[in-house]
Amino acid sequence: MFKGTYTAIVTPFKDERVDEASLERLIKSQIKGGVDGIVPAGTTGESPTLSFEEHIQLIARCVEIAGGKIQVMAGTGGNSTNEAVYLTKAAEEAGADASLQVAPYYNKPTQEGLFQHFRAIANVTKLPIILYSIPGRCGVEIAVETVVRLASECKNIVGIKEAGGAPDRVSQLRAELGRNFSIFSGDDSLTLAFMAVGGDGVVSVASNLIPKEVSAMVREFAEGNARGALKTHAKFFPLFRNLFIETNPVPIKAALAMRGMMLEEYRLPLVKMHPKTREILQRTLETCGILKEQ
Predict the structure, then answer these.
(1) In sequence order, what are the residues at sequence separation of 6 or more whose Cβ sits closer than 8 angstroms to the Cβ of residue 279?
(2) Residue 73 placed within a domain
(3) Which mean pLDDT values do the consecutive 10-residue runs of the chain (294 residues) have?
């Protein structure tokens, strides 16, 4: 069973190419920070602007750097089933531990279409699959009934990342699927709320920056130390909120650049933060003790 803290890692760029030196530093900081795994080539990793070759090479490099010390849950979903199948097979060959499969975006399939899509992917791989429901980006939600149907028919569909903002969904999923099905929060600010009603952890954006703190918060709550976990949540809630003050992953990459961990480089159509929101983010980092006050 998958549980704990998985970092949705950014993809560092330098001169329009993947910056492998910064990637290695980032992953080593995740290992040192005690996270359970990383998720490369997801939304936070700017997967829509990676070529197939870059996508596969990125996953393979992450597996190599992780070296079995933490798990690699490769983002290999897509709105084309054939594309998702291709990327998932490649991730399995590269040595990934699991696959994160986002709901198809833009083409808005029916629930039957979602079922057929995910089943087709599950049928061509032995990798454990974590579904990813994020209706705000995809325009469709993976219905609870569809998740139940998939988990029943496809034994390697073993969990879901919930990014719809509704703790009720977690309660419904847990009631229908039992304790052995992994449920992750897709929002740092809702991690403890989701865990309180049956969630198993988080696929985190903030842990790119503060892996030790996020993983400790999740671990404390899971072990029954709600007071300690809530203290950490309260301290970093402004960060959890303001890392989404502009479109993810723009703020987290800006924050990592402020810390000197990588260059602040994106691929179009993503661009650097507006000066006003950048100022808000910098003040948040200072308030949370991540940057020294200027």
Answers:
(1) none
(2) yes
(3) 97 97 98 98 96 98 98 97 98 98 96 98 98 95 98 98 93 96 98 98 98 98 98 98 98 98 97 98 97 76
Establish if 212 belongs to a structural domain. yes
State in Å, rounded, how far the first CA of the chain is from the last one: 44
For residue 124, being part of any structural domain is answered with yes
Task: Give the domain range for residue 216.
Answer: 4-223
Task: Give the number of domains in the chain.
Answer: 1
Pairing of strands 17-18, 13-14: antiparallel
Rounded distance between C-alpha atoms, residue 233 and residue 217, angstroms: 7
pLDDT value, residue 147: 98
Q: What is the pLDDT of residue 292?
A: 84
Return the CATH number at 19.
Answer: 3.20.20.70
Distance of alpha carbon 35 from alpha carbon 69, whole angstroms: 10
Query: Which are the catalytic amino acids?
Result: 132, 161
Give the number of other Cβ atoms within 10 Å of residue 244's Cβ.
16
